[in-house]
Amino acid sequence: MNLYRMIFTASLLAVFLFTACEDESNEQSKDGPGENEVWMEDIAFTPGELSVPVGTTVKWVNKDDVDHTVTSSDGLFDSGHISAGEIYEYTFDSAGTYDYVCTLHSGMTGTVIVGDSGSNGGDDSDGGGGGGY
């Protein structure tokens, strides 16, 4: 009988731990963009500036109810229209500063700063995004 009680207790503990871990990961995604991710929300890019190492793929996620674009100022990349809930990704293979805009919403601008692979590559999550300027 004690064996069954131990198995039952261990099972409950495992379910509890799994559920707790799952909730934490869901909360993180609700708070803001993940690593190397930019949200299009409230007619703004968040973060407005992102720093990454060479070779990083950046993901733009449209959290708005309207279409957006991710279009580089130098013509290097252009997402076309990104509908609500859709994602656009681009891999930065060269160091540099890459300014981009949403061609559908004037003043909606962002920048990706790509450093050599030795850089820390963290994002500058200042909550900026250039919306409505």
Please state the overall shape, judged from the principal axes of the Cα atoms.
extended
Helix content: 10-25%
Number of alpha- plus pi-helical segments: 1
What is the CATH domain class of the largest domain? Answer: Mainly Beta
* Total strands: 8
CATH superfamily of the largest domain: Cupredoxins -  blue copper proteins
- Cross-sheet strand order for the largest sheet: 2-1-4-6
**Architecture (CATH level 2) name of the largest domain:** Sandwich
Q: Which range does the strand content fall in?
A: 25-35%
Q: Main sheet?
A: 4 strands, mixed
* Distance N to C terminus: 70 Å
Order of helices and strands: HEEEEEEEE
User: What's the overall average pLDDT, rounded?
Assistant: 79
- What is the CATH topology of the largest domain? Immunoglobulin-like
Estimated structural class: alpha/beta
Helix and strand topology:
Layout: H1 2-31, E1 37-40, E2 45-46, E3 49-53, E4 56-62, E5 71-72, E6 87-92, E7 96-101, E8 109-115
What does this structure look like?
By secondary structure, the chain is an alpha/beta fold. It folds into 2 domains: 1-31; 37-115, Sandwich (Immunoglobulin-like), CATH 2.60.40. The chain contains 1 helix and 8 strands; from the N terminus they run αββββββββ. The strands form 2 sheets. Strands 2-1-4-6 form a 4-stranded mixed beta sheet, with no helix packed on it. The protein has a 4-stranded mixed beta sheet with strand order 3-8-7-5, with no helix packed on it. Strand 7 (96-101) and strand 8 (109-115) form a beta hairpin. The longest helix has 30 residues, at 2-31. The relative contact order is 0.23.
